[in-house]
Write a structure and sequence with these properties.
This protein is mostly helical. The protein has 2 domains: 119 residues, no CATH class; 65 residues, no CATH class. The protein has 8 helices and no strands. Helix 4 runs parallel beside helix 8.
Length: 221
C-alpha cells in the first residue's frame, strides 16, 4: 500500500516560504545567497569588534590623552553607543527593528514638547469651555497624534542606504553623543571616548555594507 492509497494518511504540510512570513523576518535573516548584512550580522560585528576598539583607543590615548582613565561606567556607555551605532544606519529601512525602536523612543519626548507648547497657548481657553481635566486629555491626545505623524512622515522620506549610510551621518551621531554627555558634565576626555565609540560603531556598519566597494564607505551624503 502506497502512502497515498488510504484516506487516513496525512501528508505533512510543506514548510512555509520565508518570503511570505513577513518582511521583518526577511530583514532579520535574509535568504541564503544574499550578500546584504542583516541585523544579526551587524550586532555580532559590534559585539566582537568593540574589545579591539577599546584596546586600540586606550593604547593611543595613553600617549596623546594621559587624562583618559575610563571607569566601568564610561566603558559600558561607550559599548552601548558602539552597539547602537553598529545598526543605526538602518533606520532608513522600513522593516528594520531599529526604525521601529527609534519611533517608539522619539515619539514620547516629542509629544511632551508639543504638549507644553499647546498647553501654553490653548489650555486656559479650552478649560473654560470643556473643563481643565478634559482639556488636558485633549491636548495630550493631539500632541501624541501630531508627534506620531511627524516621526512617521520623516522616516518615510528616508531612502534606504542613503544619507544615514554616510560618513556625515556617522559624524553627526558622534557629535550628538559628545554634546549630550558634556551636558551631564562628563569630563571631556570621557565624552570624547563615548562619541568616538558611537562614530566607530556606525563606521563598522558602513564597512560591512560596502565590503566590495570601499569608496562608498566615505560618501558624504
Amino acid at each position: 500500500m502506497t502512502a497515498t492509497s488510504g484516506p487516513w494518511v496525512q501528508i505533512p504540510p510543506s514548510p512555509p516560504d520565508m518570503k511570505m512570513v513577513g518582511n521583518a523576518h526577511h530583514f532579520l535573516r535574509p535568504e541564503r545567497g544574499e550578500s546584504m548584512p542583516n541585523l544579526k550580522t551587524h550586532l555580532t560585528l559590534g559585539v566582537f569588534t568593540y574589545p579591539v576598539f577599546l584596546s586600540s583607543y586606550t593604547l593611543i590615548a595613553s600617549k596623546f590623552q594621559p587624562a583618559f582613565d575610563p571607569t566601568l561606567g564610561v566603558i559600558t556607555a561607550g559599548y552601548l553607543a558602539y552597539i547602537v551605532g553598529s545598526d543605526l544606519p538602518d533606520i532608513d529601512h522600513k522593516d528594520a527593528p531599529v526604525q521601529h525602536q527609534l519611533k517608539a523612543l522619539s515619539i514620547p519626548p516629542l509629544a511632551l514638547v508639543f504638549q507644553i507648547w499647546l498647553a501654553k497657548y490653548f489650555e486656559q481657553s479650552l478649560s473654560a469651555s470643556i473643563g481643565q481635566r478634559v482639556a488636558r486629555i485633549a491636548i495630550f491626545t493631539v500632541s501624541l497624534f501630531i508627534s506620531y505623524l511627524l516621526v512617521s512622515t520623516l522616516l518615510r522620506f528616508l531612502k534606504h542606504r542613503g544619507f544615514t549610510h554616510s560618513i556625515t551621518f556617522a559624524a553627526m551621531y558622534g557629535g550628538l553623543l559628545y554634546m549630550l554627555f558634556r551636558l551631564v558634565r562628563l569630563p571631556p576626555e570621557n565624552a570624547m571616548y563615548i562619541a568616538i565609540s558611537g562614530f566607530t560603531g556606525d563606521l563598522i556598519h558602513l564597512i560591512a555594507d560596502n565590503s566590495r566597494s570601499f569608496s562608498k564607505i566615505f560618501k558624504l551624503w
